Each structure stands twice: as structure tokens, then as C-alpha cells.
Amino acid sequence: MRKTILLYGLGLATLATVLKLVEYRYFVRDLSLEVYLAVIASLFTALGVWAGAKLIKKTKIQQPGVDFAIDSKKLEETGISTREYEVLELMAQGHSNQEIADKLFVSLSTIKTHTTNLFSKLDVKRRTQAVQRAKELNLIP
Amino acid sequence: MRKTILLYGLGLATLATVLKLVEYRYFVRDLSLEVYLAVIASLFTALGVWAGAKLIKKTKIQQPGVDFAIDSKKLEETGISTREYEVLELMAQGHSNQEIADKLFVSLSTIKTHTTNLFSKLDVKRRTQAVQRAKELNLIP
DNA sequence: GTCTGCCTCGTACTTAAGTATGATTTTAAT
DNA sequence: ATTAAAATCATACTTAAGTACGAGGCAGAC
Fold this sequence. Notes:
The structure is a homodimer. The first copy, chain A, has two domains: 2-66; 72-136, Arc Repressor Mutant, subunit A. The two termini of chain A are 25 Å apart. Chain A has eight helices and no strands. The first copy, chain A, is mostly helical. The radius of gyration of chain A is 28 Å and the shape is elongated.
């Protein structure tokens, strides 16, 4: 954001300098003022398009990263606990129950218990459905 | 897209007209040419920002709806066949192998064969991974 | 014709997933 | 201190998923 603004400022300054150098004293008397204005208009329009695009992009790119403190309202509604959610996340990444157990330093049976409760809370039968459902509800990215 | 370009053209025309009306004959002798240029630069920069933002937004919004005739290039690269892709789609929707078999009017064992080949082509071990991978590759929405 | 790739199906097996039940421990709230 | 929810683990079981063959049919390429 600040970088874009800075760059825009730089671009502006550069353009101004160029304009000064190519000054009207050499041009305006040869070409008409209209042409001169058209050139300026074009340059600044281009600069504006560039700056506008940059700004929009910055905000657009930030969203996917930021809109996840997750939908904690829906999370509460479902009654999913902290641990169950962690299991859900790893599940969504395609890990097996055993892998999840290893990552969370608990036993396989613990994970199975969590998944069973999780499925019941999400009202699904299989892990693939659970992942799909969780994404629908914006519980996971 | 065309609408934005049209609007931009209109904006340009309007600005040009305004400039003509407020013509230098009335202004340039009072204010310096630099100030006049600054005004023009500002106006066109603003116009550019607006147009640029519009254009970006249009393309960004179009993407989620349109970017699906699916990425057929990557599909070919993986060597996934038509039938395998159908299985993949249903799999991603959370269906079991039996459900997929019913929907496609083939036997369970056929689906198992497809999934096995599919996993090998996607270089994964489990269906949850397959779905994740396929989404990464933009093979499915 | 022959070959190749795809789709189909079956059987047999191994492994993972999911369910049910019960129990202990931790943690936080009252 | 009591209670309740969450987290942990185990055992036993059922079902689904995944693997490894083999094999027949079928369409298009050579």
C-alpha cells in the first residue's frame, strides 16, 4: 500500500520532470496546445490505471489471507471444540487418522473419537463430506 | 468490459469538452500554465484510477464463474480420462464409492479401479488428498 | 488385422475409516 | 468442592477404502 503510493509519487515526479524538460517552450509553438494536453492526459491516465490496478490488487490479495479468523459464529453454532477443529483442519489437508494422531501427539483412537463426534456435529457420514461441509460453512479456507 | 470502455470514452469526451469550455484563453493568462496542467493531470489520473479499478474488478469477478470449462491443459497433463474425471467430481462432492457406482450405473469394483488409477495419476494415496490436489490444479471448482 | 487405450467387472486381500461403549484425566466454571 | 465439558485412551467390531491381480469388450489408430 505505502509502496504503491510511494511509487505513484515517484511516477508523478518523474512525469513532471519530463514535462519540464520537454517544456512548452520547445513544443507548444510547433504542436498545438491540444496535442500537448492529449499527451499529458494519456500519460496521467495510464499512470492512474496502473495505480488503481495496484491498489485494487493489494486489497484483493490481502482478503484470502485475512478473511480467516474463520467464521467463529458458525463454529460455535456447530459446537465443534478446539481439538475437533484441529482434527478437521488436518483432515481437510488430506491426512489420514494416523498422521493426524502423530501430528497432534495423541493416539489413533483419540482421533477416531474426535472424528466421530465431529461428523455428528457436522451431520455427515464420511470425512470427505465433512471437509466439503466445513468449507460451505466457511469453517475452513 | 465494453461498458467500462464506453464509459471511459464518455468520461474522456466530457473532460475534453469541459477543458474546451474553460479554455486556456480564460485561464492560462490568469493562472500559470503549470497549475492548469496540474488540474488536467489530476483529473485524468482520477479517471485512470477509476477505469483501472473497474477493469480489474470486472476481470476478478468474472473469474470465479467463468474459469470453469476447467483447466483442460492440466487435465491432459495428468492423463486423467473422462470417466476418471467424473468419478473425481463425485468424490469431491463427498460421495462414497458405492454412491458413485450407483450414479454412474456401473459396479463398485469399476469405481475402485477408477479411483486407484486416479490416485496414481494424481500421485496421492487417499481420496481426501485427491480432492485437495485436484483443487490445487484447478481440475475441479 | 492388430495394437492400444479405455471402460468394464470380478475375486481376494490388506488397510483405513468409522461406530459403540466405557473409562480416566484435565480444565474451567459455579 | 462439586460439576460439567473436553480431552484422552482402549478394546472390539463393522464397513468402506484401497491394492493387486486377471480378463473381456469396444473403438480408433496404424
